[in-house]
Design brief:
By secondary structure, the chain is of the alpha/beta class. The strands form 2 sheets. The chain has an 8-stranded parallel sheet with strand order 5-4-3-10-9-8-7-6. It is about 35% helix and about 20% strand. The protein contains 10 helices and 10 strands.
Length: about 280
């Protein structure tokens, strides 16, 4: 069995807790340290519970002729700058973490991460996942390129590990994802079938789908963040600007209040109805 109640830093995570909202800066900082710091501050002001960066070694993961290689090459932050970013966030009490590839694992295990995230592209790298699980921190796993057989195999492997603080995130690795390809019902299916806390990593444009995902039981929402969604390249197009992200947080919190709890207590104004006797 997986844990159904644990913490990510100071944040409670369970099926009864508030949704944890992650602002994914990813590589939208474009390799600019100052811009990255500004984005972190803006995401924090907008109400994000956690901020996520994406760190990939392009030489180890992409052919030099591909567009992905150029994008990741142009958005590199040095280890020194990443270290400075983490120290800055620690002083500001901002929860920051990163997705990374196998080559960067030794570097990131020396930094404090409140949780770890396995991106969809690394779903099949179980050796990396095993190493990350040994850190005994919550691990969020995206399923963007995995079918049900893949997830079944992964879950059976995860059950053998000591670290049970695991969440599976429904995701579609399409940028942007069309509404007809979302299949948000998979969120509740994953939660029920595997007994895990489920979440959703959103690659759509706008805020509506993330809010709908909360209605389907997502307790973690990951949404891309930018300072300018009109900028070309990277993930700017599918990202929310600070005001939009703040609106997303507001909508999710309002939605949680509307969902409430299965409370069957009769309101005071309705108690007179109890006096009516009905014979069936």
């Amino acid at each position: 069995m997986f844990s159904k109640d644990f913490k990510i830093s100071n944040l409670n995570l369970s099926n009864k807790s508030k949704t944890i909202i992650i602002a994914e800066i990813g590589i939208n900082h474009e390799g600019d340290y100052s811009k990255c710091i500004k984005m972190i501050n803006e995401a924090d002001k907008a109400g994000a519970n956690l901020v996520k960066l994406q760190v990939v070694d392009p030489d180890a993961n992409y052919e030099k002729i591909t567009s992905s290689y150029k994008i990741f090459k142009d958005s590199i932050l040095s280890d020194e700058k990443i270290f400075k970013i983490y120290n800055y966030c620690k002083k500001k009490k901002i929860n920051v973490f990163s997705t990374f590839d196998k080559k960067k694992f030794d570097f990131f295990k020396r930094l404090y991460q409140p949780c770890y995230k396995i991106s969809s592209s690394l779903f099949y790298d179980y050796y990396l996942i095993k190493d990350i699980l040994k850190m005994n921190k919550p691990v969020l796993i995206s399923t963007g390129v995995s079918d049900l057989d893949d997830i079944n195999i992964m879950v059976n492997l995860l059950k053998k590990e000591k670290n049970k603080k695991i969440s599976l995130l429904h995701c579609r690795s399409l940028y942007p994802t069309e509404n007809t390809k979302l299949h948000l019902s998979r969120i509740k299916y994953i939660a029920d079938k595997y007994g895990v806390i489920a979440g959703y990593s959103d690659h759509t444009i706008g805020t509506e789908v993330s809010v709908a995902a909360v209605n389907m039981g997502a307790k973690i929402i990951e949404k891309h963040f930018t300072l300018d969604s009109k900028r070309k390249g990277y993930d700017h197009r599918i990202s929310l600007e600070p005001k939009q992200f703040s609106l997303l947080v507001k909508k999710i919190r309002e939605n949680e209040n509307m969902i409430g709890k299965p409370n069957f207590k009769i309101f005071e104004k309705n108690k007179d109805f109890k006096k009516i006797k009905t014979i069936i």
